[in-house]
Amino acid sequence: MKKGGQIFLLVFFIFLLIIVNYNFLDSRLEGFLIGNSIEHAKVTRIVDGDTIKINNNETIRFLGINTPERGEEYYQEAKEFLEKLILNKTIKIERGKEDRDQYERLLRYVFLENENINLELVENGLANPYIYDTDKYTQSLRDAWLTCIKENKNLCEKSKDECADCVELEELDVKSQTLILYNSCNFPCSLEDWTIKDEGRKKFVFPDFILKSNNEVKIKIGNETDTESVLFWKGKDYIWTFGGDTLFLRDSEGKLVLWESY
Description:
Elements: H1 3-20, H2 22-34, E1 38-48, E2 51-54, E3 59-62, E4 65-66, H3 75-86, E5 90-94, E6 106-112, E7 115-116, H4 117-123, E8 128-129, H5 138-151, E9 167-173, E10 178-183, E11 189-190, E12 195-197, E13 203-205, E14 210-211, E15 216-221, E16 230-233, E17 246-250, E18 256-261
Parallel strand pairs: 3-6, 15-16
Antiparallel strand pairs: 1-2, 1-5, 2-3, 4-8, 5-6, 6-7, 9-10, 10-15, 11-14, 12-13, 12-17, 17-18
């Protein structure tokens, strides 16, 4: 076959490919132009506040955020928020640096009519940022959390416990996986059922413990017996990640006492 004929056939097949796969190529081209993989999908099920199912039965884990687990406050609210917003609707999904998590779920940012739903969940106090690999939305997620704190919404609601202004974070040592809390008030504080949590699912629940006035308590990883000055976070290899994390301290009602990112 002559060269001219080969070129004609090549052009013909490219044209045919474009006609048959227009929607597919359009989605891929959009992803190429902005430097990310972007696709469209229909939401068929809301698993929880940060996990959904789409039309090909793939599971999507919302990237960059973490919502409360079943049994925790605002679990149901986060799930219902997604049900009202995106269930049975076509969404745009955008990947970050990683494609899947350890459970083979797709890691994605979810958009509805160009609104970033991951950010919406954080701004409405139904999720906290969960940054384990920075990307172009990392700062937006942190800004959304600050907006939530300012508006005192849901997970960001400030504790009204009398000890909320007494208990301070004195130290968080990632290397030794140790943190120290200090009671700056002139009266003792009961920390029973208060919790410490990281950005993910690791949670420490205080036993029946009194933090005396102008005293400190150290929380360490280990299976040793608690003392008046040291409590042990049992059954963990590590809590605080070296790449960055956030500590959330909440009272027995689940209200926010303090948070600290590093």
